[in-house]
UniProtKB/TrEMBL annotation:
Spans traversing the lipid bilayer: 50-73, 133-156, 176-196, 225-251, 257-276, 319-338, 358-379, 391-411, 431-452, 464-486, 492-511, 518-537
GO terms under cellular component: plasma membrane
Taxonomic placement: Bacteria, Bacillati, Actinomycetota, Actinomycetes, Kitasatosporales
Protein name stated in the entry: YfcC family protein
UniProt entry keywords in alphabetical sequence: Cell membrane, Membrane, Transmembrane, Transmembrane helix
Biased composition (Pro residues): 33-46
Organism this protein belongs to: Streptomyces vinaceus
Top-level lineage group: Bacteria
Stored InterPro entries: C4_dicarb_anaerob_car-like, DASS-Related_Transporters
Entry keyword annotation includes Membrane: yes
């Protein structure tokens, strides 16, 4: 899921920020042991391989760089409206009031300010001991930990694993339907809760199943990587992507959900059909496989009927029902229903609207984790340890969010945020709303590569990008959608993601073979995404 910062197998980094791969664990990717050296032989020195820095390291470097930039970039600010949004054309230079000691103190306290910094309502400066409104990411931080606890408890029951295994088994003799069902299940989980690196635990099931149906290993890898990836790309209420970005943009998680849902409805079938088309081509003519077959792959087809059907117990069914119910309630609680149903942004909220944000959602998922644990009869000791382990597994994306927010505090206190915003305003001024949305998408592509954490990327970029939407006369929700589409599109293929590099390693498919397989789909998705962004910005 969203916001990874931990190094992953093969030097990759988890772009989703959910659960780091543990050695020997369900999400780990291992390599076969090497043969010992011959007696008397001198072992060659190990070759040094370049490892892409983790998101935490990148954000630490960005923090220092932005702090140093504050000495060079002139301070300035916009006039603000009653909602705090900058007013186009009102930028003016101001005199910086910070001494070198003040700036050094900001650098030292940046992680603390990123978590619970308070913004003074008069001076707009942020500090841990000021009085005013919360500027830090404490609400999002706690929500990420609560979500981690809930997801880990659900996995501890075995319900989600067993449900997908049962689905795959019952459709094992209907290949195209099996691919579509698995990819759809992964896509649904991706769009609502950022399900991505969890797919690494299903390769042991998918690879033999696809080989038994006469497909190759690329079909298994594509089903997992692209199925979950397209869901994350079209995140509707995924809190680790859309939620973090919406919070940083100052809008509701439900804003823009109609556009994102429409994208999901179109892009998911396109991706499924792409994989199914390739699978049928390989099934008809194995020589057309892009990755070929390993010894024994072709013989696995004869054992397809020998597989034992996984049993879905009453407990598994109950846990799956609770999982669906919790996420359905989350969607209900964050959607601004009055605006969604009337089409008016200023519509008066209905009395039954909850208008929940991250504090309430954090409480929801903590309560849901306890409820699932009680229903599954995990016991007090196991439930407590599982919740703690889940929060610990998710501390990585939470820290990334905190550090990224700390960077924005440095920019805010040195008064260079509006100066940077003003320089970008000059680039987008005069462009059409549709072109503006596409530019935001394209600008975020290299950022998604440099900052593999989607949560960190969102927290860092949104304070700059969101106000640009106000200048261009475009909804901030379109900027959020453009950002998450860029991040999701990159994560379908870049080698800095554990979902991709770990997936092809588990499927035993060459990364170059995977790129050859996926690049036509990437081109199709790029065109469709730009089309949806233009539509969303102009309608």
């Amino acid at each position: 899921m969203i916001g990874a910062a931990d190094p992953q197998p093969g030097g990759a980094h988890d772009p989703t920020g959910r659960r780091p791969a543990r050695p020997g664990g369900r999400f780990s990717v291992t390599t076969p042991p090497t043969a010992p050296p011959l007696p008397g032989a001198q072992e060659p020195p190990p070759a040094k391989k370049f490892a892409f820095p983790s998101a935490l390291t990148i954000l630490a470097l960005v923090t220092v760089a932005v702090w140093a930039l504050g000495f060079l970039v002139p301070a300035g600010q916009y006039d603000r409206d009653e909602d705090g949004a900058p007013i186009s054309g009102t930028y003016h230079r101001v005199e910086g009031t910070q001494s070198f000691t003040d700036r050094l103190n900001d650098l030292f306290l940046s992680p603390v300010n990123g978590l619970y910094g308070i913004q003074d309502l008069r001076t707009h400066e942020v500090g841990p001991s000021l009085t005013g409104a919360l500027y830090g990411s404490a609400g999002v931080f706690l929500f990420v930990l609560a979500m981690g606890a809930f997801i880990t408890v659900v996995f501890a029951t075995g319900a989600l694993d067993r449900g997908i295994a049962l689905l795959a088994h019952r459709l094992r003799e209907r290949g195209a339907l099996l691919i579509a069902a698995v990819m759809l299940a992964f896509s649904v989980l991706g769009t609502v809760e950022g399900f991505a690196e969890e797919t690494l635990g299903f390769y042991g099931l998918l690879v033999p199943m696809m080989l038994a149906l006469g497909y190759d290993r690329l079909v298994a890898a594509g089903s997992a990587i692209l199925g979950a990836g397209i869901g994350v790309l079209c995140s509707t209420v995924n809190p680790f992507a859309t939620g973090v970005a919406s919070s940083a943009a100052g809008i509701s998680l439900g804003d823009g959900i109609a556009l994102r849902f429409a994208m999901w409805l179109v892009l998911t079938p396109v991706t499924i059909l792409y994989v199914v088309r390739y699978a049928r081509r390989v099934q008809r003519d194995p020589a057309r496989s892009l990755c070929g077959f390993l010894p024994g792959d072709r013989e696995q087809k004869a054992t397809a009927a020998d597989a034992v059907e996984p049993e879905l117990t009453r407990l598994h069914k109950t846990v799956l029902f609770l999982l669906v119910l919790v996420f359905a309630f989350m969607i209900f609680s964050v959607v601004p229903w009055s605006g969604a149903l009337t089409g008016r942004a200023d519509a008066v909220p209905y009395v039954w609207e909850l208008d929940w944000s991250f504090p309430q959602l954090a409480a929801l998922f903590m309560c849901a984790a306890v409820l699932v644990g009680l229903v599954a009869r995990l016991g007090e000791a196991k439930l407590s340890s599982t919740i703690i382990q889940g929060a610990a597994d998710f501390i990585s994306p939470a820290l990334v969010i905190m550090l990224a927010r700390g960077v924005t505090v440095i920019m805010n206190n040195s008064k260079i945020t509006d100066t940077v915003l003003h320089s970008i305003e000059g680039v987008v001024t005069g462009t059409s709303s549709g072109l503006f949305a596409v530019i935001v998408f394209l600008v975020n592509l290299p950022l998604a590569f440099l900052i593999p954490s989607t949560s960190g990327h969102a927290t860092l970029a949104m304070p700059i990008l969101a106000p640009l939407a106000d200048f261009a006369g475009v909804s901030r929700a379109v900027v959020v959608t453009a950002w998450q589409a860029a991040s999701g599109w990159m994560n379908l293929w870049v080698p800095t993601t554990a979902v991709t590099i770990g997936g092809v390693a588990l499927a035993k498919v060459g990364y170059d073979r995977y790129l050859r397989f996926v690049w036509p789909l990437l081109a199709i998705l790029l065109v469709l995404i730009c089309g949806f962004l233009v539509l969303g910005a102009t309608v």
